[in-house]
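Async update (no meeting this week)

Hi team, since we skipped the sync, here's where things stand on the single-chain job. The sequence we agreed to prioritize is pasted below, unchanged from the tracker. I ran it this morning and attached the output directly underneath so nobody has to dig for it. Comments welcome in thread, and please keep replies under the output.
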Amino acid sequence: MNEETLFRMIDDFARFPGALLGIFQGTELEMLRSRPSPERWSPLEILAHLRDEEKEDFRERARCAVEGRPIDKGIDPVGWVTSRQYNEMDPGAVFLDWSSERADSCRWLSTLTPEDLEKTVDHPRGGTMKAGDFITAWRVHDLLHLRQFATTMAQLWAARLAEYRADYAGDIPPA
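Output:
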């Protein structure tokens, strides 16, 4: 990854909270805590997941690679949804915390050089990984969860307004 691509990606990282806020803001608490089905996450659970991944996954693992430190802490993103009681959290506080963490991430990312992205660390499941691998996966992770968030909201609105035909909009993909 060259410097121009890195800085473009950092700009995308910085704008992502605003993109999600556009969908999230003004949505009532009941809908933010609703799951379209028992096995799917609520919008609030998705948001809390993004916050915890920001703190404990991608940035930390990329940092380990850049700084030459081993990965010494495991993560449990799926388990955290229930063990950390994401759906009981205050959505505004979660969003502000995530936005603050994202700003910290962008400040750190802006200190990196293309050479830093080539530094590696041994990942317990992924084998040898570059800092750039984690950063690229982080960006894709954002976009996948943006899709999940939008799809979840579409499913919840279609269910809420079931007396009307949402199918005119097209098929709602699985979240």
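Quick observations from my side:
The chain is about 60% helix and 5% strand.
The longest strand covers residues 120-123.
Reply here if anything looks off.
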